[in-house]
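Dear Dr. K.,

Following up on our conversation at the group meeting, I've run the structure prediction for 2-oxoglutarate dehydrogenase, mitochondrial from Ostreococcus lucimarinus. I'm pasting the input sequence below exactly as I used it, so you can double-check it against your construct before we proceed with anything downstream. Let me know if the numbering doesn't match what you have in your notebook.
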Amino acid sequence: MAEAVFARSKASASVAPPKPTPNREMRDDFLNASSAAYLEAMEDEYRKDPKSVPESWAGAEISEMYTAMSTGTAPMAVGRPLDAQTIQESMRLMMLIRSYQISGHSIANLDPLALDEREMPISLDPSLYGFTEDDMDRDFFIGTWKMKGFLSEDRPVQTLRQILTRLKETYCGTVGYEYMHIQDREQCNWLRAKIETERKKQYSPERKQIILDRLAWGELFEGFLSNKYSAAKRFGLEGCESLVPGFKEAIDKAAEMGVEAITIGMPHRGRLNVLANVVRKPLQTIFNEFKGGPKLVDELPNTESQYTGSGDVKYHLGTSFDRPTLRGGQIHLSLVANPSHLEAVNTVVTGKTRAKQFYTKDPNGDRSMPILLHGDGAFSGQGIVYETLDMSKLPEYSVGGTLHIVVNNQVAFTTDPKYSRSSAYCTDVAKGMEVPVFHVNGDDVEAVAWVMELATEWRMKWKTDAVVDIVCYRKYGHNEIDEPMFTQPLMYKVIQQHPSVLTKYSAKLVNEGIITPEDFVSMKEKINNIMEEEFTASKDYVPKQRDWLASHWQGFKSPDQLSRIADTGLPMDHIKNLGQLITAIPAGFTPHRVVKRVYENRRAMIENGNGIDWAMGEALAFASLLDEGNHVRLSGQDVERGTFSHRHALIHDQITGERFIPLRNVYSGNPGRGQNFFTVCNSSLSEYGVLGFELGYSLEHPNCLILWEAQFGDFSNTAQVIIDQFISSGEAKWLRQSGLTLLLPHGYDGQGPEHSSARLERFLQMADEDPTQIPEMEMERRTQLQECNWQICNVTTPANYFHMLRRQVHREFRKPLVVMSPKNLLRHPKAVSDISEFDNSDDNDSLQGVRFKRLIMDKTSKSRSMDSPAENEVERVIFCSGKVYYDLDDERDAAKNIDRVKICRIEQLAPFPWDLVKRELKRYPNAEVVWCQEEPMNMGAWWHVQPRMSTLFKDLGRSGETRYAGRKPASSPATGYAAVHAQEQAQLVADAIR
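The predicted structure tokens came back this morning:
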């Protein structure tokens, strides 16, 4: 059969000989043919055309391999003449070595429970390559060839048996390496040299004692918690205690290589242990958290702020500490708080790291790095893992590589791996990004330490991701009161008899004479005594004022501290100067003719002082904040141009392809600011990952405006985990403020169910405001906005948009902002602003434009006065929000009933502008009150506004109720038929006006 396969290569021209194909196909053919015939065919092909043998089959070195054999420097049998047989034999040996480098991990000793029964791949069988038992003790010269790798020792001549022994020791021991999928030859060679020449190094007796001490702290901590809090869930690390010394080895190595700050994200498994023994959160603080609740406010010490939020379970909390390193110095560790949604924290961590790198001028990630911990089921099952990996090399999202650590319990909650993933390893998704993967037996603590060190070196050397897969087990169930025998009876019978890694490693060191049994007992007693002391101290421990803001945030107000309300207008001459700067395009730059016209029109807006559109209002807000020294970052799909071709924040030379960002003109002469001080960047086609990244970015520093724009507002629901678990509730749960701004294009324009609604109702439903209680609204006592979890706005003018964006930064606190940004208002002839609305000059007669308007009065209301007799005669007042206002205004003008019907725009829906709505209700005491919206009745703002209106009616002693004008309840956000849309829109507008 084999002869027949390769006979075709010598057949007549009428039958095309099979060309060797890359990777899998070539290897499959090889397994079905004799090695001699196959190599002969490959050699013939190479002689005819070297390019016909794909480099990818044997790495980038196939031509060098052949050259080496031709010159006599390749591995070969000693004393043999250089003939065809010798060349074939040498090639077979190199193929065998390469097979171990590629597939040796598949038979590595990775499972500490020895439950993983895997057959040896045929590619690792020497007989496949023509070697027999007679060849095992023959000598081969292997000393000078470039691919020698582990064969570079002082033994240029080795027997085949010695070579195979070393291959198995290196690639089939307690570490399994996957790196041959990496296309970069230099990276591949670097790793091979590390693996094949350095893996044999031994830790010194002193280092082994340090590893033992760290391991003991990890295991004894879990035992201590188990004894003290036997009925409490803690999601312990039992079964993977080697993570603690391994993790600390990675931190020490990173610090040695120049890293000053590490941002960590991890799930609940082992979190308390990492907090205590890696990050070094004080033990008495952790023990105190087991009491089950915070101190009452009246028990707290007198502090400027006593805000405690809603809190979260102890194994979701984050912290940050400066800890000393093994090799001297300090490193700052920050563990980011996260919910139970596994992996959701991934891009939050990378975003926070990117911000650290920006503010510390660390563009390559030399001083700041992220570390992410994962569960095995989550790493393969959660799409956000791929999104995080996919973002890792994007220019505006790269962090110089992330160290991924998988705590591989070999079981998810109750699901065995074969039922939870389709791949051989849970880490296979990482190989698509050419990330090296190091599998390691969790019971070999020295191997874990070595691999963590190697992965850290890789990250620091190549500034790309690395994955360490610690194959271990979970001693108990999903939590300590869960029964794992229900679903994994065989595994847990083995676990019950399995000695802990501490027991095994301490015995190893005793056998090596490094410690005595008495030393080990003394070590454990010392650790337990310290924990007992901390436990006793925790009983009287009083929580200090929460470390809820990092040093950058000092001076910012908590929700119970009154913050001033700042004006956001600018002097007229300053506005015009900024307008000139941001509309200037360099001489010699050739923009698209349409873009050129856009910028000419924007300059005319500034010069004429009227017709300022949405994009120009936004650009002025960005420019003013940049000029004041604030960082501005806008990210999302297609944000550079804008989904609706309105922004053009980054323009392209039509001849050279050069890119130019006009907003950078604002600070181009300032040497203290880099090019990325204003960042506008198109993202990958991800909402979940990118929004998490921008959230993390916003958490690092308050003096910035961080915006994420959805391609269409409807698409934000694919980032719902970030919105629900982090943005809406993060401050209440974890006492972390964020000023992140979400721009969600929203509005009913007849574009169908997926291009109309940003699901305004969902955001409003999550606003933590009581609709039955009117809060304190007096200016000197108002903390309404600070107490609310976020802001939901639906603005209608470029000027109000300008003030809203500036307000995000010009405050003494930070709140997330969700904006139902427009689509057709981007070019609507009425949705424009006069330059006076941006002006706070002393000679400006209209003071209403100096800050954001939470409500815009009817256009006929020239003042805030409510004494006009005509207002008592108004028959109807319509409240609305967003672009429907312009449809209502057009209809009212057409009906010529402007004196009878008034329209008020609620620009900020949450927190609700109680005072301003109350003022308008008092202004029109005899008018029917109508709420008009475009969305169906069960969507939009109706169910948010209606109970608040009812509360105001009661407060004013006003009879009646608010009437609804809008679409009927529906399951779909909008119709997909243009004619039906137009009919519905006309009907709801007429119902409100006529």
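Two things stood out to me. The longest strand covers residues 928-936. Residues 1-39, 54-62, 144-148, 295-304 have pLDDT under 50 and may be disordered.

Best regards,
J.T.
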